[in-house]
Specification:
The model has no long low-confidence stretch (mean pLDDT 97). By secondary structure, the chain is α/β, with parallel strands linked by helices. It contains twelve helices and 16 strands. Bound molecules: pyridoxal-5'-phosphate (PLP).
Amino acid sequence: MIWRPFTQEKTAPPALKIIKGEGTHLIAESGEKYLDMISSWFVTIHGHANPEIAEAISHQAKTLEHVIFTRFSHDPSERLVEALKAVVPGKLSRYFFSDNGSTAVEVAIKMAYQYFKNVGVKDRRFFLSLDGGYYGDTFGAMSAAGINSKYHATFSELFFETVMIKVPEYYDDAGSLEMQEDEIISTLERTLQEIGDRVCALILEPLLQGSFGMRLYRPEFLERLVDRVREYGILVIFDEVMTGFYRTGKMFAMNYTNVLPDFICLSKGLTGGFLPLALTITCDKIYDAFLSDDKAKAFLHGHSYTANPIACAAACKSLEILRRQETVSKIGEISEFHRNHSIPNAIKRRSIGTVTAFDVESEDKANLVVSKAWDNGIFLRPLGKTIYLFPPYCVSNYDLSRTYDTLNKCL
Ligand SMILES: Cc1ncc(COP(=O)(O)O)c(C=O)c1O
């Protein structure tokens, strides 16, 4: 019997068997159609079964399905890096492949830690992170989310030490946040004075904290955080696993700011949701610290499916589709749709790019709303008492309207 992820098997309803995906829709064995309004856990940015990506995969599978990525390279990986170079800031010039969001983060954490060891700084072992962050389910990623993470508390005894920074929540009608931000920065400053020279890296999801509840904060706050920690020689990791590839209305969430990290982590939308693939992109300063005659100074980390050529071919095609004017315009239209449509009774409504979210009074109510949407053929997945829309970019105005109408009726 299959054991599902993030599921209490005792109480959850049995899995619904899906036999086909078509654009924004999932089609069940019974013939029923479900509108996938969360892009199947944030991955299917172009919708399901995109024929162009399917074709690229088919072609690559018949040419070279896989090869160990230590002694060999291949065309799809090189094409992908070239294509990404056009959209990733030039300072971030070193591309390390892995195969999911958690491993992209794990790699960044390990590289940051080893960087200091390699350059002879021995005692930088603390991490800084934002309260309510989510970076995946491997041990480094869980540790970075902190001991109070609602997903990982069971394992907290095994975590490395991470100091959490509060997040000033931004939403429609939040009012001025400057004072709150000032206080948080002052607290951070005190922490840095105490342990700043022992902190390895700051890790965060830029602007939008996803799995905690689609929580937003201001770019100005992010800039101040980065500026502060840089004063103490601390490295900066942006986890763009969820925010990357225009989800927030720009190619990357960091494009809303004037700061650059030392690492970005990418996955999820990278292959358009077809295959698992991830990248940790860093700069020459980090890469150069691993060059040595001493083998132990190399980054001794890898995965069997590192840079799988079929996944890279899918990613090349996905990026090509993403950069077309029609896709970019559609992303703009979705963002505008969210801005122009209210949701009565929504608490703390917040939107950025193609994502909109709001809270309801309780988790039970959120579950009820989501189950009503399900009865209307719309698949949503609440995060506690938060309901959010995270549609594929090919979603029609009709389907967006239908979703808003359904939510309004339920609420
Ligand atoms: C911001 C962020 N980082 C990392 C991850 C982990 O990615 P994966 O589930 O592919 O391991 C997620 C997953 O939701 C995420 O939202």
